[in-house]
Design a protein that fits this description.
The protein is mainly beta. It has a domain of 60 residues: SH3 type barrels, CATH 2.30.30. The protein has 2 helices and 5 strands, in the order ααβββββ. The radius of gyration is 30 Å and the shape is elongated.
């Protein structure tokens, strides 16, 4: 007999063999993720020399005045009136010692 077919019949779209997506299931990738970190050694060295001093940090959005608390490889911690601000090094334009 004649079989009636309708649009969307799954037999029309069936693949001959199912794709095998997980062929290499046991393979572990040993690649490590390397993110670029642009460290300016002289700039961070100068910042280290000013830890504990009151400084003015000028960023791309404005100025912050406070006591330099910590220097890390990608940010500095500035204590402004008892509140700690973490500022990314790439956002710092320049810094100077604050005038009392």
């Amino acid at each position: 007999m004649h079989r009636f077919k309708y649009y969307g019949d799954p037999q029309d779209y069936a693949l001959s063999a199912a794709p095998q997506y997980y062929l290499n299931r046991d393979v572990q990738h040993k690649n490590t993720l390397a993110l670029p970190n642009y460290v300016e050694p002289k700039f961070t060295e100068l910042l280290f020399q000013h830890i504990g001093l009151k400084i003015v940090i000028t960023t791309t959005v404005g100025k912050l005045i406070g006591i330099l608390d910590d220097v890390s490889s990608d940010y500095v911690t500035l204590d402004v009136l008892g509140k700690k601000h973490h500022i990314r090094l790439c956002e710092i334009v320049y810094f100077e010692i604050a005038k009392e």
